[in-house]
Amino acid sequence: MKEEILREKVEHLNLELDEDVGKLVEAFHKTSFQSRNIARCYDVYAAMLNDPSRVTIFLGLAGAMVPAGMRKVIRDMVEYGMVDVLVSTGANLYHDICEAYGVHHYLGSPNVDDAFLRRIRVDRVYDTFTDDEGLERVDNIIAQIVDEMEVGVYSSREFLALLGGRLNDDSSILATAVRRGVPVFCPAISDSSIGIALVKHYLRCEERGRKPVVIDTVKDCYEIMQIRLKSRKSGAVYIGGGVPKNFIQQIPVTLDILGYKNPGFAHDFAIQITMDDPKWGGLSGATIEEAQSWGKVKADATKATVYVDATIGLPLIVGALMKTQRAALKRRGRLLFNWDKGKLIDLRVEKDVSA
Q1: Region 45-55: what's the mean pLDDT?
Q2: Catalytic residue positions, numbered
Q3: Most buried one in 66, 184, 257, 332, CB count within 10 A?
């Protein structure tokens, strides 16, 4: 029965195919409502890529984007140099790891007997299914990898670099980030199945009388702050809200509190893809203008927001950029991070690197 339900895989959207998304998004400039806002977000992103100051681009990734088939879209953003720093929910990284270990996502339906799904151990993400027994297998794999790590205190960036280095999957977001030298932060890592796997590691260590691996998310704040401090300009791309959005937004505030009063540390560019309404006061719907009141985004920042499902808005924007900004992506090169444990010794640009 489970085999019948988990039959048709989610196919992760491939923007490298020869569809001319660029012309479609360019045409959105002459439309109205949210299609025009997609074009505006495209314009802001293109401006970031073409800025001669070599903008450091932070991507805040929330929502169930990997189960929804956006894994390769995000992976390609990393591969093609559209992202310099990734801040993600643990869930997206976990589902990326699951795909790397052969635990896939399948086309399903929201109109189903969920109690029945529980009995046969199939998990549902709206209209997408996955195998709960497969997820448990991945939990055990992660726990075993952590068991084999050198005991110590890691930032989530350090921890995820080690975890991603074990993945043999060119389509993986995390593996691609490790290969391309893109730092990946997960400041709420315990709020995910990666955190659950860490609990298993903690219990094993307790039983064996040894110290566990510790993830220090305060160290994350220190590390990501240093990236902004060594960048000439910065831009933020927010997919949804939650912890990733706030973590990126609080970087200039952290620098301000630590005595770096130069207002130039606020973000120079900002894009937001959301469906949440600002009037409820939640972070996912909070406007970029609201962030300006906190000094998180510059008063004269180049910015745009589109109110659309990110599974629609993100591939349109990214697909258009991949088709129209090839020269800019090659010209800007990737950032080379020289870390000494938690201290960023140097940040420089590797010139003329083709993505």
Answers
A1: 97
A2: 296
A3: 66
